[in-house]
């Protein structure tokens, strides 16, 4: 939507992101009528020249500190769509109720949408090569996060330190009952076979016995 904008609305989203806007994500629901159902219960109901958005999302990644939220919904005919709307729009309630271990600062609480006005230009219906209809579109985010993790590991290797010392960033609000788990895990990192990254291809694990035996161009079983 923002990577290759096709219209004025998409170009506005891209400009806002370039200017520093953060887009949260609201896709997860708990009341799905059946396991694996891809049609969300959050609805887009036609309203004059736009829509009204109603529903509840859980584990809304980053929405508590975002400027926009991307919402997955379906219209009255079951057509899937995504919309990106400002989190301060009337009818949106952000609830800070996510208490997953080590994830209190992710801002991933519950989000309620109650008769939220959505403009027609803010809705992108799934279609081939459009929005969520782009093949492997969700993979881009995973590749990005993998690159971030690789960068963190590289930084740890460049600047080894004792995480238990001063300067460790923690949540002051929850520090007493949710201590950081980094000291217990990083204390074993020097014994991990994946740690000496510079002695291998950057950010890649050592080859497994299967990969060493595989011939060039061999398919994956």
The computed structural class is: alpha+beta
Could you tell me the CATH topology label of the largest domain. Butyryl-CoA Dehydrogenase, subunit A, domain 2
Instruction: Output the number of helix runs.
Output: 4
Rg from Cα: 22 Å
Q: What is the approximate shape?
A: globular
CATH class of the largest domain reads Mainly Beta
CATH superfamily of the largest domain: Butyryl-CoA Dehydrogenase, subunit A, domain 2
Task: Explain what you see.
By secondary structure, this protein is of the alpha+beta class. It folds into 2 domains: 8-133, Butyryl-CoA Dehydrogenase, subunit A, domain 2; 137-203, no CATH class. It has 4 helices and 8 strands. A hairpin with a 2-residue loop joins β2 (43-47) and β3 (50-57). The longest helix has 22 residues, at 137-158.
Describe the secondary structure blueprint for this structure:
Blueprint: H1 8-18, E1 23-26, E2 43-47, E3 50-57, E4 68-75, E5 80-86, E6 92-95, E7 110-119, E8 123-125, H2 137-158, H3 182-186, H4 209-213
Parallel strand pairs: 1-4, 2-4
Antiparallel strand pairs: 2-3, 3-7, 4-5, 5-8, 6-7
